[in-house]
Amino acid sequence: MHTLDDVLPLARQIRRRFIDRLSFECVDGPFGEVLAAHPNLVLAISHATPLSWLPIPFVLSLEACAAGQGHRVPFGVVDRFFFRFPPARPVGGFLTQADGHQGFDALLARLQGGQPGHDLVIFPEGNHSFFADTFGIGPFRSPRFVELAVRAQVPLLLVVRRGSEGWS
Fold first, then answer.
1. What is the pLDDT of residue 27?
2. CA quadruple 40, 164, 134, 4: dihedral, nearest 10
């Protein structure tokens, strides 16, 4: 399993090459303190277009590492396409940190597994972002990420992006 520290070099390259201006704000206080107070999280991240999600995990990785939380292990949810289409499998495996598509019960088990620092990263709009208003939040593909957080008894961290609307 890779940690945020493991992806730090890539995050720095993404930041340097693709992000002109960056502003990061955590409403509940310093980001490192929020992460330290909650050993596991469900991060629900908005995105406007099929590519506007791309800089967000890297920015979050940079911020978390700068706050001393680089030991955290992110894992995500991706469409089954990433495991059904052989050339996309390595991307699916990297994003999910799993060998195949995971259902609700498998994700719940990972969150309840007692391993601190394991965070579920989800983009709830999913492929609905293809046709959504690029300056708003589109309809969620599924609201089950809320159920995951509640059943696993982990906080839900809402992440809103602005500025990547043109990444399509």
1. 87
2. -20
Looking at the chain, how many residues does it have?
Answer: 168
CB 120 within 8 A of CB 110: yes
Mean pLDDT calculated for residue range 89-107: 90
Cβ atoms of residues 164 and 56 within 8 Å? yes
Query: Whole-angstrom Cα distance, residue 61 to residue 67?
Result: 10
Helix (H, G, I), strand (E, B) or coil at 73: strand
Cβ atoms of 47 and 53 closer than 8 Å? yes
Q: Which residue has the tokens 């089954």?
A: 80
Q: What's the whole-number average pLDDT of the chain?
A: 84
The span from the CA of 54 to the CA of 40, in Å, is: 22
Q: How far apart are alpha carbons 6 and 146 in whole angstroms?
A: 28
Alpha helices per DSSP H over 1-152: 4-18, 31-37, 55-66, 81-84, 89-96, 104-111, 144-152
pLDDT digits (tens, 9 = 90+) for 17-57: 988 888 888 888 899 999 999 989 999 887 666 666 777 88
